[in-house]
Every structure is written in C-alpha cells, then in structure tokens.
Amino acid sequence: MSRILRIKKYIPLLLAVLLLAAPAAAAAAQPLAVTANLLNVRSGPGTNHSILTQVQLHTVLSPLEEQDGWARVVLPDGSRGWVSLSFTTPFLPECYAEVAVAVLNARGGPGVNHGILTQLKQGTAAAVLKEQDGWFNVILPEGGQGWIAGWFTEATPLQGYVAVTAALLNLRSGAGTNFQLVDQLPRGESLAVLGRQGNWLRVARANGATGWVSDGFVAWNSSNNPAKSPLAGKTIVIDPGHGGPDPGAVGITGYREKVVNLAVALELAPMLRDAGATVLMTRWSDWGPSLWERVNFANTGGADLFVSIHANAHPQSWANGIETYYYAYGANSARSRLLAGHLQQQLVAALGLKDLGVKTAGFYVIANTRMPSALVELGFLSHYGDEAVLRQPQTHRRAAEALFRGLENYFK
After folding, report:
1. Can you identify the CATH homologous superfamily of domain 24-90?
2. Distance between CA atoms of 155 and 188, rounded to whole angstroms?
3. Which of 234, 271, 325, 358 lies in disulfide reach of 375, CB 3.0 to 4.6 Å?
C-alpha cells in the first residue's frame, strides 16, 4: 500500500509503565454478527441487567471488551450495551477501505443527501460491511457505522485477525525496526491484517490507525481467517521429548530440556485445535512415556504427522543454533524432509538463532513412526546465549507459533 498513517507523537515512558502495570481492556477489531432473530442489548454483562434495546438477526456489532461470556459492543447507531456472546458469531468484513483524500465525510446513508455523521482523515482504515452504488457501509473509528464514498478510498483485502501476545508491541511506520515508532499496543488487542512483508504484518486497529508489527509477537485467530486453515481435519501428534525422571539436556544454569519441550508443546496444541486439527499429545505433564509408547501412540492414533520437540546440548559450550531432523530411509522420507524444512525455516525466522539446517538421523521416534515425522532441536541449552533465549516464556510462544506456521505451510 502506498499510504500508511504516521502518528508523530511517541507514547510517553510513564504511560508505557502504567500499561504494563495495569493494562486496560483492548478494543477489538473483529466485528460480531447477531445469530438470534432478536437479541437483547443490556446495561451490563448479565440477564439481571435491564434491556436497553434489541438488535435483529445479522446486525453487525463492534465489540469493546468481553466479560464472563458477554461482550460490551457498539451498535450501528453508535450506542453501547452488553450482549450475550452465545448469540453472536465472528464476522469477516469484505475488505478494509483506506481514505485516500485529506478528509472524507461519513454519512448516515449511501448518498450525499444523507447527513454527515463524522469525518475520516487520510489513511484511516475502516472495515467494509457492504457496498451500494459505489458507497461503502463501514465501521467508524468510534465503533458505530456510516457510509463513505468508495471512489475516495483504496480497498485492501482482509487477510485475517491477530491478537497481540506481548505486554507492549511496537507499531511502526514500516516493515522493520529501523522505521519510526508509531504507537505501542497492549496485550490482547485484536488487529486486522492487511498485508505482509517478510516477518512483518501490516495491520489496522479498531480506531482506523494502521502500521506494521512483527509477526513474532501476535497470534493468528485461525477460526476467523478468511482462508480456511489447511490444518483443518488433520490429526497431528505432538511429542514433548523426555519428561518425568528423564530431564533431557540440562543447561548452563540448570534449565531442563523437558521443561522447555513441554512449555512449547502446551502453547502449540491450542493453536492447532483452533485451526481445526485434532491434537494428540504424548504427554501433557511431567511424566516420561517410553520411546516405544510414543511411537505406538502415534501409529495407532491415525495421525497425519508426528512432531517431536527437543532442545540440544553439546560438550563444547560454543555449539549453538537450531536444527531439525528427519529419517532418510523410511517410506515417508520425502514428505518428512519437506516437513522438516518448513519447521526449520519458521523456527529460525522466529527465534533468531543460528540456522544449522535440516539433517538426517535415525532417532527412534522418527525412524519408527509410520507417518511423515520430524524432530526439532530448538537450541543448545549448553550455550549461554541459546539457553537464555529458551528460558523466556515469550520464546515458548514464538516457537509454538513458528511450528504452527511450518505445519500450515507443509499442508498448503
């Protein structure tokens, strides 16, 4: 896109500290559609609160926050209230329209004969609900709805929605850390994805502001992605290596391999389930099934793929980096090599550690499984730098997201 909203003012350091201490509820970019014939809008999150009004089937609402199965929403006319999430479903806008003129009027209907509700500044991105005679019915930055002249905008396809997973995520004016800091986004904020460049996503906030964020600090909401995940319907075995009395490798500072393996697996499993996959875990806690039990579990479970998660160690403390293994002599060696390549590529990009490449080995769990399989080594716990990275909770999340992307790419 040729136009990117640039906000010149930096967030003060004090505000950032306050956000870390007590983050406010983040505005949600993902609209909701009503699935009941008539849905009560109440003054609070529960049936004990008074009814303010009712909205009809298919009405699109802009959520502000959620609480105990209820959402506080903005109605099309700009009023606010609470609705039960049980009678709504995530709604995917047709696209996002970005204002291409200095100021664009938003009107109450599709035509200049309708009154002006507000004005949108150049660069503002608004979710498009429908089109009529060249006019776009959009969600306004305040959450209500209005109509804008489509010929004064540039329409951008929606690629899906992500949620911020970092405590504070930098929003930048371009795809890279060398670009200006535009804002900082709180954990949990939902963002519409309008484009990608390498490991950076171009996103729109609920208030219409746009910018770029690193994809390592967000999680895709696969169920709301316009393109159905290729993982849907697949059965995947996730094998967190070691466990129980077997700690695996022990790091420079005593960090145990079995801990990081399980932490990454527990982050990965719900991502796969949200994408429609069936997830089989060889262990969910600190216990250690035998190698035979792991393989038998996969072979009798009707799995499409087997992924074993490990961390490395070496007698020499200089050894470092990420590597992924496959078994080269089995019936599925070609598919296993492809799988290993996708996983390796995504892990290196997400964690930033040395790329040791894809390798072959006869590890029991990948040599004896009857489906394509791979074993990832996330880094060397015997290396000061790698261990420091692998100890961090955000690394567990980023590694899981990388494995998720690698698995999606394998099935595409």
Report:
1. SH3 Domains (2.30.30.40)
2. 26
3. 325
